[in-house]
Amino acid sequence: MSPRRHSSRHRLALALLAGLTLTACGGGGGGGATTGQPDAAPATPGGPMGRFAGEELVLSRWAGDPWTSGQKQAAAEWAKATGGTLDIDAVPYENLHDKQALTLTGAGGYDLLYVHPSWFGEFAKAGHLAPIDGYLADAKRNPSGFSADSYLPNVLAQGKYDGKQYCLPDFVSTTLLAYRKDVFDKAGLPAPQTLDDVAAAAAKLNGQDGMAGIALPGKRAGAVADIMGSLLTAQDNWWYGPDQKTTLDKAKAAKAIDFYVKAAKAAPSGVLNFHTDEAATAAAQGKAAMIISTTPSLHALEDPAKSATAGKWGYAPLAFTAGRPAGELIYWNWCVAAKSEHKDAAYSFLQWYTSGAQQAKVAIAAATAGGTKDFYTNQDVQAKLPFLTAMNQALTTSNPQPSLPTWPKAQDQIELAVQEAIQGKLTPDQAADAMFQAVQTTLGG
Amino acid sequence: MKRRDWWVIGCYAVVAVFLAWVLVPILTVVLNSVKSPPDIFSATPRLAFTPTGDNFAKVLGELRFQDYLVNSTLVALGSTALSIAVGVPAAYALARLPIRGREWWAWLILFTRMVPAVALVVPMFVIFQSVSLLGTYAALVAAHTTFNLPIVIWMMRSFFEELPPDLEEAAQVDGTGRFGAFLRVALPLTTPALAATGVLCLLFSWNEFLFALVLSGRDTQTVPIGVASFIGTVSVDWGGSSAAAVLAMVPVFVLGLAAQRFLVRGLTFGAVKG
After folding, report:
1. How many Cα atoms sit within 13 Å of A348 on the Cβ side?
2. Which domains, from first to last, does chain A contain?
3. Cβ neighbours of residue A275 closer than 8 Å, sequence gap 6 or more
4. pLDDT in tens, B174-186
5. Which among B37, B218, B237 has CB closest to A64?
6. pTM
7. Residue ranges, chain A, pLDDT below 50
8. Residues 6+ positions from A407 with CB-CB distance below 8 Å
9. Chain B residues 184-213 with a CB less than 8 Å from chain A
């Protein structure tokens, strides 16, 4: 998922002021003694652990999107099984960071938080989040056989900061190519194997039967950087290394940008204003022969209620070289607030909700994937998500969406460089150079 | 055709273009609110479609948008009442009483309106949190009063200044005090202005977003937060947001119609001196 339509000026102003109030308000203690009965067995098989009669949890998340109602249902199920209550404080995504930062900086008020990778580092560093290593390692607090090993290691690792596990993952997604099988058959084109095939097919199909060759995001809202990240990973390159110094290879960045520019030339008009949903809407309405976007948005292609092209799509991971697919690991973190007085109950929900069985329910409704190993062997999910195989292939070679506190600034500059290349203001080489400078400056050398 | 006719046609054309510019988006929202997703997402806008009430059913059922409407109503009425209760006497005082440096006071009050809301919201958050009012209607009413009060004071002050002082002086000669002159003479004469000011306060409060976002709680979120909540991270619920927008517009529309007479009189009050 990508930060979208974010008011950086507004966010900056609030962040600065929130920082000032940090000193004024004091840090607060956080923590709290064990509450309820965290090691009580689930009331029903597969249910959440523990009994927390009378405990009232508040969860902070964004509003909207198809799976909100599913989450409310999960909250109600958890409450019924444990005796606690779980209220959801949902605010517009654009304002979620600011609302969370203000609330956590003050007296608290949240027990559970959905934390986007782009501000996970900021919150962990500020002490807003509670470590959960102890909970994960405590067999009494987890269902039989459930532990940190139940999660995909590379996904779980994204919730670590300074050696401590703070969050559990869900909402896993990546970037993929979807192509109209019927259109390719009619044009006598084979299924695209590489991005060169995609660019060539996009150019050939563009304008045929009133369709654009390909739809893809062009708006500076996060998804462009996600796709660029996948294109770099497909060339064994990445923005930065473990030491947080840039490792961006300008030649490989230029190759990725060159592909983006070629694709954008075969995209519907107004591509620079397309985010994932606009691109998916165009593709779903038969206005594009292909689409590159994030997997949750691709779900719309297969929804007969929204799509005139449902059932006509094939899916493939992004690859510059056939047989070497790549993607970007996009995910969200569920975290327990440091100031929560109900950490035991919060962990109970967190563990249960991120488990494979619960994530399968979300996946079927919203096309996001879970972070546990058993999720990917769930037959129901495989039947409902036609792109799960391609998604698995992409995630096999993937880098996680950057979670450095300073990354949003670099991301914006990366997307600006792509936009300027699409507009012809910069050559791919110049855009790659601008990208390198932006990343290097943001990372501090 | 006479030159005057061309002028009239030109005027109508300008008005028609302006109305289209203003009304087409509203019409689109209204139509989308009763369209199913395939009709909303059709490549070319569909005017012939089978209307559906699904969007309203979802918005009022599962999403309980009526709660947002109730919250907005309470906050807007509360803030408007408080602003008028405090602001009208203050405006009268600034218009009539021999207060030292009253122009400076008036400008100081106006200055509070010039401070960006984003600069006020964090201190307010801290204050309301320290007095345990965060997430309550009282916090929102107080916050909205900060921007409504200067409006009331400045608008009503100008209206009071337009009234001939002789009327109040005559009342005072007849035995009433200054407050009585204000209450029984000045205030009734500015009723249209008061109504116009009240409507403006209601509208500002109804549409306010930032304070409502930061200071409201789960049970006190207002309409702007509710409407914005249909924009997700990877999708926008166009049908739901359109239905919510229609529901948000209806009270304002009804209020505007009901207060139209007062609004026209109030906003032109004192525009021409007799």
Report:
1. 36
2. 8-18+28-172+330-390 (3.40.190.10), 175-329+400-443 (3.40.190.10)
3. A2, A4, A5, A217, A219, A221, A223
4. 888 999 999 999 9
5. B237
6. 0.75
7. 1-32
8. A118, A442
9. 213
